[in-house]
Amino acid sequence: MPSRDTTARDYRERINRVIFHIEAHLGEPSNLEELAKVASFSPYHFHRIFVAFTGEPLAAFIRRLRLERAALQLLHLDAPVTEIALDAGYETPSAFTRAFAGLFGVSPTEYRQRPEPVSLFGPRPLALNTLTEESIMTPEIRTIDPMPVLFVRRTGPYYQAAGEAFGVLCQFAGPRGLLGPASRMIGISHDDPHVTEESKFRYDACVTIDREVKPEGEVSRKTLAGGRYAVFLHEGSYERFQETYDQVFKAWLPGSGERLREDPCFEVYLNSPDEVKPEDLRTEIWLPIE
Length: 290
Hints:
The structure is a single chain. The chain is α+β, with helices and mostly antiparallel strands. It has 2 domains: 4-113, Arc Repressor Mutant, subunit A, CATH 1.10.10; 140-289, Regulatory factor, effector binding domain (Multidrug-efflux Transporter 1 Regulator Bmrr, Chain A), CATH 3.20.80. The protein contains 9 helices and 8 strands. Helix 1 (4-24) crosses helix 2 and helix 4 packs antiparallel against helix 5. The termini are far apart.
């Protein structure tokens, strides 16, 4: 008989498959029966299991992800509100406005027009009006092929989720010889702290692979998109990541002439807290651009 821990890991893996499927098809209609099939659960039990593992009903989970994506589009794209509403699955701007205000407390137009985007879950750590032209970061533009990776997903505060996810990933990858000098350790912080509640942050700990590896348990496989990226160097502790992200999105991007792609940013860790002091950490932040 499987142990309780084994069963919990299996259920977590199956719920993660559903979450990854939702993220990959966020603009498409979805239904309980289809997602239950992805998880290999019966439709009768699936929703109760999903709520137990995520803390949210399925429809609320999907609606929140769509609205959070819409909030980011309002901040970083010039698309009309009507277009963003349709992309979020709302047939009318009025329905979108009601749902958006219900989550964020302001209308989409008010959210976009604020001189500083509303910070919903804590104070903004960077005063962007103090930035000078000389202090704006300059990236290196790189074009890469798609990168296959193994990854582990964790949810919660990023510092906690990253430690837990990399712990599981390294336990899997180390004995299989996947942590060599050519391997890249990558983190994907899916959610903007100004938009998403900290307990719901989604973090993927990734390691690049150059051969076929069969995923097991919580370890999954995916491919990071190739193409053009603006690559910024963050120097210092991980706790100051958001300052760099804020500067990139609010200071560099608007005047860069570049447009974002619908792919996640990711972080490439050039060294480790096990090797150097926090102030000596070096991390590349990769921003996908068209």
